[in-house]
Amino acid sequence: MSEISRRDILAVGATSAVLTVTASQAAAQGVPASHAKGGQSLSNPGPQNPLIDKDNPSAFNPPTTDKGDMPNFKYSFNKEFNRQQSGGWARQVTVKDFPISKQVAGVNMRLEEGAIRELHWHIPAEWAYVLSGTCRITAVDQNGNHFAADVHEGDLWYFPSGVPHSLQGVGPGGTEFLLAFDDGAFSEDDTLLITDWMTHTPKDVLAKNFGVPASTFDNVPKEELYIFPAASPGALSADLAQSRQPIVPEPFNFSLMAQTPIKTAGGTVRIADSTNFKASKTMAAALVEVNPGAMRELHWHPTADEWQYYISGHGRMTVFKGAGRAHTEDFTAGDVGYINQGDGHYIENTGSEPLRFLEIFKSPKYADVSLAQWMANSPKELVRAHLHLPDGFLESLPESKRPVVG
Ligand code: MN
Ligand code: MN
Fold first, then answer.
1. pLDDT for residue 42 is more than 90
2. Fewer CB within a 10 Å sphere, N or C end of the chain?
3. How remote is the CA of residue 235 from the centroid of ligand 1, in Å?
4. Residue 92 carries which DSSP code?
5. CA 402, CA 341: separation in Å to the nearest integer?
6. Within 10 A of 83 (CB to CB), how many other CB atoms are there?
7. Which ligand is closest to the CA of 338, given by its number?
8. Could you tell me the distance, in angstroms and rounded to a whole number, from the CA of residue 126 to the centre of ligand 1?
9. What is the pLDDT of residue 41?
10. 312 has which bridge partners?
11. What is the phi/psi pair of residue 180, to 5°?
12. 365-402 tens-digit pLDDT
């Protein structure tokens, strides 16, 4: 029986009388053992928001192992203001709305066919994952080297700090993508735009700068464009042919799907960081796929906080902190999770489809520490003295890492 149907039973019970579910009654109703409450109250006769409750079953009814208070580590793009413009939209999750997320900010953006996110730059580096369609990306670096590429679903890009760039939807479906910046306070509304600078510079200065008459700039837009409709771009080769300068030495795009994933019994992991995606000097990421019933193993990250974006499926993550604290939240497509550097965590697939999510770090290299690998490679008597584990258990642990266990 699912969480929802059990909740329906509770709702029916609450209309007639206060209902208390004991562990044995819960078991009889098919409630997962981890959620059986041993006589603790599951009654809830007061006001309810059933829509929020349905997406957050672990909030009202946490595992009995959860304890204590900790900063909120779940957010969703669906709760954010959507900046809708002709040709596309953008919404962002920053430290302002999601206070734990100090190291990374995220933007979810849509560009219809031909629509352009205007030429701009910013100081935080920009890492991206293409969620749908095709995007034409362009940039010119500080040495005048140029870059243009068409990126497709599952591809990444990375623009270093201060390097100017543009994004454009290609083909009938346009594109949608996730951006991650290596600064949780970064706002997509504070980027430096080419129209803005032109508009806020006197025309005689522009004339002097470019060596042309001031009237050249009579039609520059008076307001920033940000996202605006345009014709679909021509062939990529034609765009690349418009500069005779060299191409950037380290490509700003990366094909994550071209690599052979780490495959385990429970799913797959694909890692991109500065070791294989050379340009990505400040950001590392993993695309994780967890099969139904499987789990991203108990682990932590020694070098950076983790910013998560859920792409599809349903998952439940528990985060463990010092002082014996543990807290569980449920996640689905469009949700954002955040785990502080060093905090233990695991993610279970609670649905019937594969759970797919991104782990993103402000770090040049991907790094995680596996609880199982730590135990397997430590002196056995030492570990047994702590945990009183039965003979043979530690010997059964594999010495190599299994990021997704099935
Ligand atoms: Mn940008
Ligand atoms: Mn992790």
1. no
2. N
3. 23
4. E
5. 20
6. 16
7. 2
8. 6
9. 83
10. 356
11. -130, 130
12. 999 999 999 999 999 999 999 999 998 999 999 999 99
pLDDT at position 208 is 98
Tokens of 12: 């029916």
List residues with catalytic annotation: 359
Query: What's the pLDDT at 5?
Result: 43
Q: How far apart are CA 183 and CA 124, in angstroms?
A: 6
Distance of CA 398 to the CA centre of its chain: 29
**287, 358 Cβ separation under 8 angstroms:** yes
Condensed to tens digits (0 to 9), the pLDDT of residues 175-189 reads 999 999 999 999 999
Per-residue tokens: 210: 């470019």
Rounded CA-CA distance 314/194 in Å is 41
| pLDDT higher than 90, residue 68 | no
- AA letter at 182: D
Give the residue carrying structure tokens 């495959």: 263
- Alpha-carbon dihedral sign for residues 195, 201, 202, 203: negative
Q: What are phi and psi of 227, to 5 degrees?
A: -125, 130
Q: Which ligand is nearest to the CA of 92?
A: 1
Reported for 318-322, long-range contacts at CB under 8 A and 24+ positions apart, including other chains, are 318/63, 318/65, 318/66, 318/345, 318/346, 319/70, 319/73, 319/343, 319/344, 319/345, 320/344, 320/345, 321/68, 321/70
Pairwise CA distance, residues 64 & 42, whole Å? 12
Percentage of residues in the chain having pLDDT higher than 90:
88
Nearest bound ligand to CA 123? 1
Q: How far apart are CA 29 and CA 3, in angstroms?
A: 11
Residue 13 has pLDDT above 50, yes or no: no
pLDDT of res. 37? 55
What average pLDDT does this structure show over 207-236? 97
Centre of ligand 2 to C-alpha 384, Å, is: 26
Tokens read off for 20 = 């208390």
- Cα(102) to ligand 1 centroid in Å equals 19
Q: What is the pTM assigned to this prediction?
A: 0.90
Instruction: Give the integer Cα–Cα distance in Å for 48 and 45.
Output: 9
CA distances for 105 relative to 5, 180, 192, 328, angstroms: 36, 6, 17, 22
